[in-house]
Amino acid sequence: PLVHLPLPAGSAPGSVPVKFFGRNTSAAAAMPEINTQDLDEKQVQLLAEMCILIDQDDKRIGADTKKNCHLNENISKGLLHRAFSVFIFNTEGRLLLQQRSDAKITFPGCFTNTCCSHPLSNPTEVEEKDAVGVRRAAQRRLKEEFGIPVQQVPPEEMKYLTRIHYKAQSDGIWGEHEIDYIIFMQKDVTLSPDPNEIKSHCYVTKEELKDLLKKADNNQVKITPWFKLIADTFLFTWWDNLHNLKKFINHEKIYRM
């Protein structure tokens, strides 16, 4: 079910429009009947999780299911949610990549950065001061996907750099429309991946990632659209400055990709 935040005092229901890409549109999501019988049972269960609905300035306006947030029918009407992308580098400076499992509903089998997911609409993960809610969500998902012990990835050690806003279709039914918090961390961590989430994983150098990106351009492998956007723009500059990331922190700007 869609959950709206309380309206400002004196506002009548429906009197406060929500803006997406300069258009006035209702935040209410369509709930088309989607056949999930052929999808992975565990991944279907996750579709009931409540994501955080936002406007194009990343202001929280409500909550809706992961399912509704990822249906192209709703995305085409402007439905937008909060997300994050984590990049973990080991002490040798190699980036941890994952290949999404074939069970994933969006972008199955695609290579991507360490962890990509969504903060949930609960008191722990909606907290916005210093993006602590998003960083807590990142800690949770690193444990769920990669089996990384939570004490190895405390939120206070995660560097929140900036945000990107992008939209992409996975297929005719499912897609993404997110404002994505970019989180960096350099640390050696213990890995025990969940095969329902992760098909394979590897640490790569810059040159190895460039080779992977070339293979993706030649349709030899698949990579997620958000990872390609970040890799084509900011990633290698940030990677060159792992010990001096402070100058790249920008919590005011949202990069529209």
From TrEMBL:
Domain Nudix hydrolase: 79-229
Cellular component terms per the entry's GO annotation: cytoplasm
Pathway: Isoprenoid biosynthesis; dimethylallyl diphosphate biosynthesis; dimethylallyl diphosphate from isopentenyl diphosphate: step 1/1
GO BP term, pick one: isopentenyl diphosphate biosynthetic process
Domain of life: Eukaryota
GO MF annotations in UniProt: isopentenyl-diphosphate delta-isomerase activity; metal ion binding
The EC number(s) this enzyme carries: 5.3.3.2
Keyword Amino-acid biosynthesis among record annotations: no
Pfam families: NUDIX (PF00293)
InterPro entries: IsopentenylPP_isomerase_typ1, NUDIX_hydrolase-like_dom_sf, NUDIX_hydrolase_dom
Keyword terms of this UniProt record: Cholesterol biosynthesis, Cholesterol metabolism, Isomerase, Isoprene biosynthesis, Lipid biosynthesis, Lipid metabolism, Magnesium, Metal-binding, Steroid biosynthesis, Steroid metabolism, Sterol biosynthesis, Sterol metabolism
Coiled-coil residue spans: none
Class in the EC hierarchy, top level: isomerase
Keyword Endoplasmic reticulum listed: no
Chemical reaction(s) catalysed: isopentenyl diphosphate = dimethylallyl diphosphate
Cofactor dependence: Mg(2+)
Protein family per UniProt: Belongs to the IPP isomerase type 1 family.
Function: Catalyzes the 1,3-allylic rearrangement of the homoallylic substrate isopentenyl (IPP) to its highly electrophilic allylic isomer, dimethylallyl diphosphate (DMAPP).
Alphabetical list of PANTHER family matching this protein: ISOPENTENYL-DIPHOSPHATE DELTA-ISOMERASE
UniProt cross-references to NCBIfam families, sorted A to Z: IPP_isom_1
Name of protein: isopentenyl-diphosphate Delta-isomerase
Origin species: Callorhinchus milii
Gene that this sequence comes from: idi1
